[in-house]
Amino acid sequence: MARQTTLEQILDELPGKNCGLCGQPDCEAFAQTYITGTTPLEKCPYTAKKYTRAPQVFENTQAAPATWVDHLGREYDFILDKFAGEPGPRETVLPFNPINVEKLGLKKGDVVFGRPGWISCGCPVTHAGIIVEDPDYFNGTFVWCVVGPMAARERGIDIGCYNSTAYEGLVKDTRAELLIGKRYYFQPRFCMLQWRHCGLINSLGKTPEGMRVRIEGLWIG
């Protein structure tokens, strides 16, 4: 049921960060979903912290999409969600200069930021993340959970440009049968641009929360 409030009133309550953590491309789109009654205000991590002091961890409360197209009108097969209890989706990162992983002394718990480009994805948006596993100094890679930009502004380490070599997460909403070795179009739930991605599933496992997948060979579009 639609709520009796105006777009301007809701935008005044929102932080205006356009971070995408709510699952919408920007704050105005989120406000529209709130007005139509499909999204609670607490889905915004910053209003949740302001009014309820809830931690910035979000569970999937959204319904499966009605159209299965991204905001550019391109079709996709499934939505990639984060693992329960984690702040964002998992991504394996390979910096353009892999030796910097050891040179910067990166470790589990560090907040780092950079922009995916070159052979993988080529996203125009700078990403930030929290390293969730001990980095692999030998190969110059690490695994992070992607988070909003505010964390990097407070204590982030700049890694420059990097390659995204894999995504890991849960698939709860899909319109296709998932098979190892097959390439799919998918939509990351918290993608700030709400663009579809493409990748090959090379690991697949059933869990009570959904299908756990690892996706490699990534690109956007």
Can you describe this structure?
- 15% of the residues lie in helices and 33% in strands.
- The two termini are 35 Å apart.
- Mean pLDDT is 83; it is low at 48-61.
- The chain has helices at 7-13, 27-35, 45-51, 100-103, 149-155, and strands at residues 78-81, 90-95, 111-116, 127-131, 142-147, 156-174, 183-188, 197-207, 210-220.
- By secondary structure, it is of the alpha+beta class.
- A hairpin with a 2-residue loop joins strand 8 (197-207) and strand 9.
- Strands 1, 2, 3, 4, 5, 6, 7, 8 and 9 form a nine-stranded mixed β-sheet that branches.
Q: What's the SSE blueprint?
A:
Elements: H1 7-13, H2 27-35, H3 45-51, E1 78-81, E2 90-95, H4 100-103, E3 111-116, E4 127-131, E5 142-147, H5 149-155, E6 156-174, E7 183-188, E8 197-207, E9 210-220
Parallel strand pairs: 1-7, 3-6
Antiparallel strand pairs: 1-6, 2-5, 2-6, 3-4, 4-5, 6-9, 7-8, 8-9
Distance between the termini: 35 Å
Task: Tell me which oligomeric state these chains represent.
Answer: single chain
The proportion of residues in beta strands is: 25-35%
Low-confidence stretches: 48-61
Features of the shown structure:
nine-stranded mixed β-sheet; alpha+beta; 221 residues; 15% helix; 5 helices; single chain; 9 strands; 33% strand
